[in-house]
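Hi V.,

You were right to ask for the full record rather than a summary. Here it is.
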Amino acid sequence: MGKKNKDKDAKKNKGRKKDQTEYTLMDLSPALTQAARSMRTVLSRNLLHSGLYAGQDGVILSLAEADGMTAGALAQKLGVKAPTMTRTIGRMEAQGFLERKPDPDDARLTKVYLTELGRSSVTAISNAASSCDAMATQNFSDKEIRNLVRLLRAIDANLQAEAYQLEEAEED
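Predicted structure:
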């Protein structure tokens, strides 16, 4: 590594104390859980001015990707139970973010769609998330952020695979 790169890295890490604590695998769950809670708290606070509450941002972003999903499909995509999703949809419908309509091809199904207010909130959600991300990763290098995201995705994939195997075993 050349002198310029060392100087650049030193400037990026200036103000960040080197943690000398020895961590073990037993520290992972509490640290990850606390970081997730803190992220959720800050994101929720950032979303308040738009009228959204915790968890509603995921519903809007999911529908922005694929409008017209059933409550069950939304629940599955977001990893929540169907009754929780039904309550969330009801609340968001009352707030004017969503509307429910019968499926034109299958009258037995009801699908959920974004209203104009729901569609316009996507930008607010994106801005709130960006602000939260910047706060969470202040003083991190681009490489550290890429590694963090890669590792978190790997953790999630491992846990998702385990959850799938447990579900399969329960069905047998």
